[in-house]
Design brief:
Number of strands: 16
Largest sheet: 5 strands, antiparallel
Strand content: 5-15%
Strand order of the largest sheet: 7-8-15-10-13
Radius of gyration: 36 Å
Distance between the termini: 51 Å
């Protein structure tokens, strides 16, 4: 960076009293004065509602304007008029003040008053043509007083503003210190605006009775969007940080500030401000703001203490380094304060109606609110979008780009308000956002170029608060490459590589070709369409995918952490009703699309594992054949194609798990060839998913039966909605993920990490035990034993070496886990299930035999299977066991309705918000061809399968085949009650409870009305299919075969069973070999895979697409363990 001291000629004060001046500064003052005068004229005439009248009429009216009694509420408007004219008087007087001569200052003061008074009278007269503007002597007097005050400041301190402007325009010496002092004055002035102080005892009593103050929190600002008060408190803390810097800078060399003294000083300052605001009519005063200001002063002092490490170039470097997460957090905060998460989203028709009512005149809406609210709105918008200027400055881009980005983002945010209930866009915010971002970036550039001096310079010399650094800001031209970028050499293949960014986490990232961009656009367009049409929280999910896409673009390896974690936690089916193609599929499509676009292919000369490749191809072929057979005979998709398991398209629902796994194989191979530790990243993702699963199941246990109630029959399901038809998903995931936790627990050195890991291990053991799954107990025990054995060994020269310390640690962990498991195992419900094991085994054997007997005869079925996903439909038609009830959507003359058939209970459900001891009115239309039929409706406290407290209503349906309108009152009683921290979710359930064989009931237009008339249900008319509706069952035999090998044989025949067996056997052999040699991670993968196979003895598992994908990924890792080349 060039030495500005040697290149700039600073204007010096002349001996004859002339003020420092440069032509550009004088021209800038003139420009500011003209621009501000035009703004005053425009702002005084908004909303520009011109009503013509003759000159004589206007003059006659103006001669008789009155002095009004503004009262308490009008005082702020009167003061604001005066404040508005302070800059007018100040700028005009400064413009006329070219020296310190007494005569010049007097003439400048008089000239400024004449101009300002003329302007005020002209504006007030013009307002007669623009009602509803109010014209009064009060306004003229206030404007004259404000102009006089501004002119007095200008002539009293004539050199201050010119000196500051000189620094800002061309002479950066001591700029930081001067800006901080100006900021301190502006902060106090802003805090007390609009200066409408209480002036009488009745006003003081009114203030005491209002909700605009509180010892801790004032309730008035807490109404509505909760994000805004939180943002205000956060902004209060940030806004005081510069004052902490000033405090320490002014007292340098005089005293040292301990944390206690800093908090006292900050608290005293905050207390003074809050007391002053209490005596302001429109002021908000609360004790919490005292604490935020104390925290801000302390943070400012902390920054001062570490000022030697806070050069702007270093701050910019850190912002570039953490730009992605900071940007994501910024977008989340921005959407929150704009009401995305607090207001209900409305339809496009309602948005178009709102658009017609929007006024695009700048500052139109500011006129119709209070002066304080208008200033706060203006300041908050500038702060919201000024951060974009900081990000643009840190990335060495021009301020114009900041203006463009902020304008586009603000336009998007304001447009979104059309779709938010009780909000309206303000086009002025778009202008303010662009200006704020541009000005922030411009100021940051000036501060970056400002020379810095020692902090120990005398405070009279306006020393800045930042000291010289050995890390100057690189003077790189906009758009140029860095030196590192120019010297990088591509090392993988001959593909073009994107090396222009310093945030690339991999060795090299591929620069996409036009074909890559075509694939990217197609993939993300599919994701965008899926998210846009998603029935629940589409805006929040869309925001997540935007951030995730940006993360993957720069760090594709992050998908190895996100995908395993999301597999367990990213499941909204009970709320959305979508279980064929859901949010997790969108995440995988995003991951795979961006992964293939950004990651270079593995080197062509790399050695391929032909044996593993051939077995993978054989397995893939069996899945393709099984999927095709499941889809046959081909049917054109209709309204029920993707809403139930009896559809032939159920083959796609299951097979997509295998498809995602095989597509991820390619991503994993590319990451491995790029030098990424893919097993470690995958293990981290599994542990994150495990932690989230433990949190959910502990909440579930705490909310429903209680953490230590081991007599209740309640069995947890966690976040796995696939268990709505039974299954073993949660115990399977806990068993598969815990070995990765065990290995990482032994590898980490931090005691905090180990302590958290032990807590998670205890939670995982508790979680497995409260599933009350007998085979889950066995699988978890085996997986834990194998993983502990693997963790105890360290790698030696091709042989295992047992560590005594690790052995003792493993023994201690085993004892701890037994201490958790044994009390649950000894509990009444567990013991009851254990006593039923022999009887249940007989039921399972009969069920397996029945499943195999239901298959079509012939060698093709034996070899290739019935087809993936065909078991539920086959059971419904051919089984002699108890059949499940059916459901499907019907359509007549464009009207869609729900049809419920007979069988073991099947519940169509939706989450609702219920208050205890309240009455609700249920309305629905129903019909049936069978006489004496009934439909049962209930509201139950329920998470997924097991209900707690319920309120039931049996409704009779006339069996005449005609639609009838039915009503029933539902009394909630205790349902929905309980403490806020243990509130149970509540569902409304509809099911066919008849015992007649052919009792089919059609249902439509379901409404559950609260006392205020609000409908608590969404899509009760089923016009959107089964969106927001989900189903659960009591009997799982119609949905699962209860055996992994028999499920594979049923779906894919002997070909699928042999292919999977060989694929798994090879993987297990390789993982076992490397685990024996001391590879702890190989041992964890082996333990997980073996645990899966143990559970698979008595559960199907592969009919859950997420679990199927996870298992195939584990076997890939088993086969890849110990490979030194990026083989398949």
């Amino acid at each position: 960076m060039p030495d500005l001291h040697s290149t700039l000629k600073y204007p010096q004060q002349k001996s004859n009293g002339d003020l420092p001046s440069i032509p550009s500064a004088h021209f800038s003052i003139l420009a500011f004065a003209v621009a501000y005068t035009l703004f005053v004229i425009y702002g005084s005439l908004v909303p520009l509602d011109f009503h013509p009248q003759t000159w004589d009429q206007a003059w006659e009216t103006f001669q008789h304007i009155r002095l009004l009694n503004v009262g308490t509420q009008g005082r702020a408007d009167w003061v604001a008029n005066g404040v508005l004219y302070i800059p007018v008087g100040f700028l005009t007087a400064t413009l006329f003040t070219r020296s310190k001569r007494h005569s010049t200052l007097v003439l400048a003061f008089i000239g400024s008053l004449l101009f300002s008074f003329t302007l005020a009278v002209a504006v007030e007269f013009s307002q007669l043509f623009f009602p509803p503007r109010t014209v009064s002597i009060n306004d003229v007097a206030a404007e004259f007083i404000g102009s006089a005050l501004g002119a007095f400041i200008a002539v009293r301190w004539p050199d201050q503003f010119r000196s500051f402007l000189s620094m800002l325009m061309g002479n950066p010496d001591r700029l930081v210190a001067r800006i901080l002092k100006t900021y301190a004055i502006g902060y106090v002035a802003f805090s007390l605006f609009p200066y409408d102080f209480l002036v009488s005892v009745p006003e003081l009593k009114w203030k005491l009775d209002s909700s605009s103050w509180g010892w801790l929190i004032a309730m008035e600002p807490m109404r509505g969007n909760i994000a805004l008060p939180l943002a205000k408190l956060f902004a209060e803390t940030l806004a005081v940080i510069p004052l902490g810097l000033i405090l320490c800078q002014l007292t340098t060399g005089q005293r040292s500030w301990s944390p206690t003294r800093l908090f006292i000083a900050g608290g005293s300052f905050g207390l003074i401000i809050e007391i002053a605001q209490f005596f302001i009519v429109s002021g908000i005063s609360q004790g919490l703001s005292v604490l935020t200001r104390a925290a801000g002063i302390y943070l400012g002092a902390l920054l001062w203490r570490h000022r030697t490490r806070l050069h702007l170039s270093r701050l910019a470097s850190e912002l570039r380094r953490f730009g992605l997460p900071v940007g994501i957090l910024y977008l989340i905060a921005l959407t929150a304060v704009n009401g995305w998460f607090e207001h209900r989203w409305i339809s496009s028709d309602s948005a178009m109606n709102a658009l017609n009512d929007i006024h695009f005149l700048p500052f139109y809406y500011h006129y119709y609110t209070t002066e304080q609210a208008a200033l706060l709105s203006l300041a908050s918008v500038c702060l919201m979008y000024g951060f974009i200027g900081i990000l643009v400055w840190a990335s060495w881009n021009p301020p114009a780009l900041a203006m463009l980005l902020a304008t586009l983002l603000a336009g998007f945010m304001e447009t979104s308000k059309l779709f938010l209930e009780n909000l309206h866009p303000d086009p002025t915010n778009i202008i303010l956002a662009g200006f704020s971002a541009w000005a922030t970036a411009k100021l940051a550039n000036r501060l970056t170029s400002a020379p810095v001096t020692s902090a120990e310079v005398s405070k009279h010399n306006d020393s800045p608060v930042v000291v010289a650094s050995n890390f100057p800001m690189p003077s790189r031209p906009y758009g140029s490459e860095t030196e590192a970028a120019r010297t990088r050499e591509p090392a993988i293949n001959k593909e073009p590589l994107d090396t222009t960014t310093s945030t690339v986490p991999l060795t090299l990232l591929k620069k996409p070709s036009w074909m890559d961009y075509a694939v990217l656009i197609a993939g993300l367009a599919c994701v965008g369409w899926g998210v846009a049409t998603f029935p629940n929280q589409s805006a929040l999910i869309g925001l997540f995918f935007i951030g995730y896409s940006v993360l993957l673009w720069y760090r594709p390896q992050s998908l190895l952490i996100v995908v395993p974690a999301a597999l367990a936690l990213f499941d909204f089916a009970p709320w959305s009703g979508r279980f064929y193609f859901d949010e997790f599929d969108f995440l995988l499509l995003t991951s795979i699309t961006i992964g293939y676009v950004r990651l270079p292919a593995a080197p062509r000369h790399s050695k391929r594992d032909l044996l593993f490749l051939c077995l993978a191809i054989l397995l893939g072929l069996s899945y393709i054949i099984g999927t095709v057979r499941g889809l046959l005979p081909w049917q054109i998709p209709e309204i029920n194609a993707f809403t139930n398991y009896y559809s032939p398209y159920n083959a796609l629902r299951i097979a997509k798990g295998a498809l995602w796994a095989f597509l991820l194989y390619g991503i994993l191979r590319r990451l491995a060839s790029n030098g990424q530790n893919i097993r470690s990243l995958f293990a981290q993702g599994m542990v994150v998913g495990l932690a989230g699963t433990i949190a959910v199941l502990i909440w579930e246990r705490f909310t429903f039966p209680g953490l230590f109630n081991f007599t209740d029959v309640y069995r947890v399901t966690g976040s796995f909605s696939q268990m709505h038809t039974g299954g073993a998903d949660i115990e399977t995931f806990l068993t598969l993920s815990t070995p990765f936790l065990v290995v990482q627990l032994f590898e980490k050195r931090s005691w905090i990490t180990r302590l958290v890991g032990i807590a998670l291990l205890v939670g995982a053991t508790y979680g497995v035990m409260v599933t009350f799954s007998r085979i889950g107990y066995a699988a978890y025990g085996i997986a834990m034993a194998l993983s502990l054995l693997a963790a105890m060994a360290t790698s030696g020269s091709q042989v295992r070496i047992w560590s005594f310390k690790r052995g003792m640690a493993a023994f201690a962990l085993t004892a701890l886990l037994l201490a958790v498991a044994v009390p649950i195992f000894k509990g009444p419900f567990t013991q009851a299930r254990m006593s039923q094991a022999e009887a249940d085994m007989g039921i399972r054997l009969a069920h397996w035999s029945s499943a195999l007997q239901m298959r079509d005869p012939g060698w093709s079925t034996a070899l290739l299977g019935m087809g993936i996903g065909r078991y539920p439909e086959t059971h419904s038609w051919r089984s002699k066991e108890s059949l499940a009830a059916t459901y499907r959507l019907g359509s007549e003359t464009g009207n869609i309705f729900l049809r419920l058939g007979m069988g073991s209970p099947l519940y169509i459900e939706q989450f609702v918000t219920i208050e205890p001891h309240s009455n609700y009115l249920l309305n629905l239309n129903a019909r049936s061809d069978q006489p004496n039929t009934q439909i049962t409706v209930s509201i139950c406290e329920k998470w997924l399968l097991t209900s707690a407290r319920c309120a039931f209503k049996l409704i009779d349906v006339t069996g005449n085949g005609q639609w009838q309108s039915l009503q029933a009152n539902l009394q909630s009683d205790e349902v929905g009650g309980g403490s806020w921290y243990a509130a149970r979710p509540v569902k409304l359930s509809i099911y066919n409870s008849n015992t007649q064989t052919n009792a089919v009931i059609d249902v439509d237009n379901v409404r559950l009305q609260a006392a205020n008339g609000d409908d608590l249900l969404t899509n009760g008319a089923f016009s959107l299919g089964l969106d927001r509706w989900f189903f659960t069952v009591d009997n799982d035999r119609p949905w699962h075969i209860w055996s992994l090998p028999i499920q594979i044989q049923f779906d894919q025949g002997w070909l699928g069973l042999v292919a999977l067996s060989l694929f798994v056997a090879l993987g297990l052999w390789r993982a076992g070999r490397d685990a024996w040699r001391g590879n702890a991670m190989a041992g964890a993968i082996l333990a997980s895979s073996v645990g899966f196979l143990v559970i698979g003895i008595f559960d199907s598992l592969v009919d859950s697409p997420r679990i199927l994908m996870l298992f195939l990924l584990l076997i890939w890792f088993c086969g890849r363990t110990g490979m030194k080349s990026p083989a398949l």
